[in-house]
Each structure stands twice: as C-alpha cells, then as structure tokens.
C-alpha cells in the first residue's frame, strides 16, 4: 500500500518539473498577477479574460512567472492556469477567419485584434481557431500564443 501512496504523490512533483517556456491559458475569471511568487507580494495587474494565452517562463512552488501578450511579466498561482492552448488575435486591422487553411478558402468571418479563442492545430502558417461557436482557420502570424513559446 505505501507504493500506491508514493505513486500518487509523484504526479504533483512531476508537474513542477515541466520544461519552460510553455504556453498556458488563464483558467480563472479573475487572476491577480503579482510582483513576486507569494500572496504577500503586491498585485501588479488583474486579468479578467479567461482563455487569454500566456507564456510560462519559470516555475516556483505553486507559482508561475508568466508573460502576457503585451510583454508584461509577473507571478500567478499555478492552479489558475490551464494547459489548454489558446491564442489572441494581434496585428493591425481585421484578421480573416477562413473555411480552410488557405488564402483561397472561403472567408467565414473577420476578427478584431484582441479576440481570444481556443487554438487547434497549426500547419503551414495556418492555425485552427475556435471562438465560442465560430471555428475556422487564421494566418498564424496574426496570432499570439501559436507556435513555439
């Protein structure tokens, strides 16, 4: 029986050893970014956008040093992040969400910069993006959160 107990304890330790950097998304409806890895540090920013992609740069005992799409960095509680991949539309003007991974594919919608969605697979410069009930393909260079962290 002690073997089962030890095996159960290994999973959280392995999660602490994850290779950085990696992509994550905000899981909580409100997430405080702090200037240090503890609730004792002051809050530097408050996020209110679940699904916003962030880059995890460093791990420390239940805390994650993240970078947001604007380049701001700070510490957040690890349990309020999700391993699910997301992306935010960036760049100037409307981005085209197409029926397939090509400029020749039928245009489905135009998406404003700042819109957040769930990221599917990316291939040959195109990524599948789901925004609520809308799904399509968008050029990878119009997304932050796609590609290698």
Number-wise, the strands total 14
CATH topology (fold) name of the largest domain:
SH3 type barrels
CATH architecture of the largest domain: Roll
Profile the largest sheet.
5 strands, antiparallel
Helix-strand topology string: HEEEEEEEEEEEEEE
Rough outline: elongated
Tally of individual helices: 1
The helical percent reads: 10-25%
For the termini, the CA-CA separation is 41 Å
CATH superfamily of the largest domain: SH3 Domains
- CATH level 1 class label of the largest domain: Mainly Beta
**Estimated radius of gyration:** 18 Å
Class inferred from helices and paired strands: mainly beta
Strand percentage, roughly?
over 45%
**Model regions low in confidence, pLDDT < 50 over at least 5 residues:** 1-16
Word description of this protein:
- The longest helix is centred in the N-terminal third of the chain and has 15 residues.
- This protein has two domains: 70 residues, SH3 Domains (SH3 type barrels); 58 residues, SH3 Domains (SH3 type barrels, Roll), CATH 2.30.30.40.
- A hairpin with a 2-residue loop joins strand 4 and strand 5.
- Helix content is 10%, strand content 46%.
């Amino acid at each position: 029986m002690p073997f089962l107990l030890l095996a159960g304890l290994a999973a959280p330790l392995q999660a602490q050893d994850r290779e950085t950097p990696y992509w994550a998304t905000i899981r909580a409806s409100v997430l405080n970014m702090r200037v240090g890895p503890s609730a004792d540090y002051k809050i530097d920013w408050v996020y209110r956008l679940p699904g916003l992609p962030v880059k995890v740069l460093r791990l420390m005992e239940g805390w994650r040093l993240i970078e947001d799409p604007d380049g701001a960095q700070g510490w957040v509680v690890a349990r309020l992040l999700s391993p699910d991949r997301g992306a935010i539309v960036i760049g100037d003007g409307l981005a085209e969400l197409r029926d397939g991974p090509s400029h020749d594919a039928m245009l489905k919608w135009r998406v404003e910069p700042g819109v957040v969605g769930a990221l599917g697979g990316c291939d040959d410069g195109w990524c599948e993006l789901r925004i609520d009930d809308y799904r399509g393909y968008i050029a990878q260079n119009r997304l932050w959160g796609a590609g290698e962290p």
